[in-house]
Amino acid sequence: MTTHAGPYPLAPDASAENPEISADEQQFNDLIEADSRIEPRDWMPEDYRKSLVRQISQHAHSEIIGMQPESNWITRAPSLKRKAILMAKVQDEAGHGLYLYSAAQTLGATRDGMTEALIAGKARYSSIFNYPTPTWADMGSVGWLVDGAAICNQVPLCRASYGPYGRAMVRICKEESFHQRQGFEILLELMQGTEAQRHMAQDSVNRWYWPALMMFGPPDDDSPNSAQSMAWKIKRFSNDELRQRFVGMLVPQAAVLGITLPDPDLKWNDETQKYDLGEIDWTEFHEVLSGRGASNAQRLQRRRDAHAEGAWVREAAAAYARKQSERSEMVAS
Ligand SMILES: [Fe+2]
Ligand SMILES: [Fe+2]
């Protein structure tokens, strides 16, 4: 029974008098409560740190593996302008990977450790990058749908409670919106082209639409980590809320493109003020997630080869850094 005199009885675990909570933990809880930011120097619960390392490193791996389906088209882009744009986009994704690896490093993860886990096939990355990109229209669909879904997921992450993650996301989101626009523009040009080009664009959207919806993760009632992540203010909206937001953004854009979203059950529901969506095939999602997607093995092998081919660059950079520090030691002594 509480003897607290005020009109709002304090919850036992939120009370400053609770001997179970250390001053550090109280400060952490207060920062979260006040929508302030946790910085690397601050105390944080071990589970919070682990959960962020997992999320940020998976996100970094996704950016890096995500370069592959598009780099596949750089040499075959239909014009010099398209080639330059696609190269810039793929380079942006490399940059995103680097900001995110740096953010994970502020939590004590090592860059070598994260890379090792990825190339050993132990670390996860977004399954969307295990789908193949057989046609040029896929460069449109990847930008419009995959980067589009990434924006819906990532804009709320700009306010994530962990400072270095939130700040990395601000810059990443600016670039992702350029990516989405360039994808839309590729599809628009194809849709204004020949019958064969329109067909290629529609076929590509048919292949990417459902996997893009799956990027938001399982439905809310089957998403065990979400509640904790929302309590820590890392995540701000549920998977289903974000999926709804995404579809709400796509519908008017699909109308401008003249493209049909491949869901016959998709319609606006006046009562719920939401779109009703058709059934998502989660068996396919779990197949791809467990490594049986069309391109899983190929993506990992390419990443391993690239790491091996880059060994000389890492060695040269380390030798240069060593030389520089020896030189400055000589000057100092
Ligand atoms: Fe990115
Ligand atoms: Fe992107």
TrEMBL record:
Pfam family, one: PaaA_PaaC
UniProt keywords, alphabetically: Oxidoreductase
The protein's enzyme class: oxidoreductase
Cellular component aspect of the GO annotation: cytosol
Listed GO biological process terms: phenylacetate catabolic process
The enzyme's E.C. designation: 1.14.13.149
GO terms of molecular function: phenylacetyl-CoA 1,2-epoxidase activity
PANTHER family linked: 1,2-PHENYLACETYL-COA EPOXIDASE, SUBUNIT A (PTHR30458:SF2), PHENYLACETIC ACID DEGRADATION PROTEIN PAA (PTHR30458)
The protein, known as: 1,2-phenylacetyl-CoA epoxidase subunit A
Taxonomy of the source species: Bacteria, Bacillati, Actinomycetota, Actinomycetes, Micrococcales
